[in-house]
Structure formats: structure tokens, C-alpha cells
Amino acid sequence: MDFDYFSWILLGLPLAFVLGWIASRLDLRQLRIENRQAPKAYFKGLNFLLNEQQDQAIDAFIEAVQNDPDTSELHFALGNLFRRRGEYERAVRVHEHLLSRGDLGRVDRERAQHALALDFLKAGLLDRAEDALRKLEGTPFEAQARLALLAIYERSRDWLQASEISRKLQTAGQGDFSGRLAHYLCEQAIGAEPQEAERLLRQALELAPQAARPGLDLAALQHRCGEPAGALDTLVALMDRAPLAVPLIARPLLEAARASQQPQRALQVLQASYAQAPSLDVLDAIVALDASSATPRDGYVRHLEHEPSLVAAARWIEGEKFEREQFHPQVQRALEHAARPLLRYRCAACGFEAQQHFWQCPGCQAWDSYPARRVEEL
């Protein structure tokens, strides 16, 4: 029995060695096959992506990820594709899977955190996007994260948080945000009590003295509080600091001058401004104030000497008498209809047009992108 036992051992050892060798060869062969399949699927996905075949590209990248689940670049490519297609839930799952990996390096972890924040932003999940962006403080994505946070706070009208982020961006040398900070103070003043609103607006004036909005809002507040003379002083001072905004200042100046019974002072200031830079809005205010002139509307004709203007021509014709007066209303309506689009304001950033002037474009959300002059004068 002992001889048979050892005989079987002696026979079994070579057999086990042969079986182990065969198994290792099979494992190596399988590994080579998988390694060949992974780059093949990867390049196939790239080819589909270059040909703008996103569905096929996603299938190829999913196959590549299944063959090599430890490759982070494949996950990033797949997550970005999902986000571009609007499949935000799948993009979130990909990037959260990356962040859950313990072997992920710091650089890739920060990159995955930034990609996850973009997924939430695109999906409109602002609370989760805010949390994800806050985690990017102190990373190479810090500046981008702060700009995204600023957009979130502006969208949600959280002006205090927006002010905090703007100050951080300015301190970090990312640009001059003083004008935007002044807008935030003006926005806070809208719903405040008069005394608090005046404090905020004067703070905005100190922060951005050349900005037009704080002075205009302060003058409007003074007018509402029964101080038209103060409003007039504020607007006259603003015309010196912000000459490009004079077309926006002309109408409030006219109203403050009438309320404070100082039409001559306003008329002199407007005439001096018009002589330097002719403007239809300034001319309208001059015509309204120039009661001493026998033919105040002749100013519109003189304006045509500076530049051709359908608006000015229509306003002059409106007050004129003609031989065939019965046709005057029809002609006047036609001219006003043709001139109406020329009275709009146009955003310099996106081209969005509106009948009223906006400090922040409703289309692209850019600040101070609307010139003070109307379309016809651009």
C-alpha cells in the first residue's frame, strides 16, 4: 500500500505541473486578448466621436470600460459624452463611481469632482451643484468653480453670496468686479426701507463712481421721497461722471427739473451735453423743456443735419401742418410703425433687443451689455 501511495504521488506531481502550466498559458492568452480588445474599443469610440456618431461612441466606450474598469480616462470620456447628450443621470453615476474609487489619484479626483459639478449644473440641480463646487476650493478648478457659483447666486438672486464670491474673485486677480458689486448693492436696495436703500446706493456710488445705475437709482429714490432738488443735483453730477449714460439720464433729469421748478438749469446742462454728443433722448428732453422757443420741434430737423434719423423725422412731422391734412394721421402711423424697432435697445453680447434698457441682459445674463443709445444710433 505504501508503494502504491508514493507511486501515485510521483505520478501526480508532473501532472499537476503540466496542468498549472496550461492554466497559466490560458490566463496569459486571455489577458493579451483583453488588452488588445480595450484599445481597439477605445479607438473605435474615438472614431465614432470624430464622425459625430455619439450613440455608437458611447457603446464603444462602455465596452472599453467593461474590459478595463480601472482606466479613469475612459470614464471621463464616457461621462462627458453622457453630459453632452443630456443624459445627466448617467453622467452623474459615472463621475460618482470615479470618486468612490480608493485608488484614484488627487489630480483625477479633483477632475472628477469638477465634472460632477458640471453634471449637476447642466441638470439644473443647483443645490447639489453648489455643494460640489464648494469642494473645489483650493484646487486648480477653484476659479472656474467660483464663476459657476457666482452664476448660481445671481440666478437665485442671492446677492449677499454673490458679493462674497465676487470679492474673492477680485482678490484672486480674476478681474475687476467693482461694477458688478455695485449692481448687487442696487439690487439689495430695491426691497429695502428708504434709509437703508439710500445707504446701500451711496455705498455703490463709492464702490463704482463711474457706474450709471447707482446714481440713477439714488435720484429715483430721492424723487420718491419728495426731494426733487436733491435728485436733480445727483443727476447733474452723474452726467459728469458717466457721460456715456447721458441718454438714460435725460428723462429722469427732465422730471426732477419740473418737480423742483428748475427747468432752465436742466435745459442748460442738456444743451451742453447735446452739443458734445447729439442724442435723440437728450433732444426729446430739450424739446420738452424749451418752452421759450416758438418752434421747439425744429430741433428734430436740426438733428437730421448731424445724422439721418427716421425717428427724428417722424417726431418733427407729428407736429407739422400740411396742405392735405386729412392724410396726416395715416402717414404718421406708418412712420411710427417703421420707427418703432429703431427705438429698441440691443445687447452688445448676444443681440437680444428690448423696448426698455436692462442692466442685466434677460437673454445672456451679461451685466452692462446694453448701450445707453437706441438701435438707430448705434
Automatic annotation (TrEMBL):
GO terms for cellular component: cytoplasmic side of plasma membrane. It is a single-pass membrane protein. Its main location: membrane. The chain crosses the membrane at residues 6-23. Residues 345-369 form the LapB rubredoxin metal binding domain. One of its GO terms (biological process) is regulation of lipid biosynthetic process. HAMAP family: LPS_assembly_LapB. This is Lipopolysaccharide assembly protein B. It comes from Variovorax terrae. The gene is lapB.
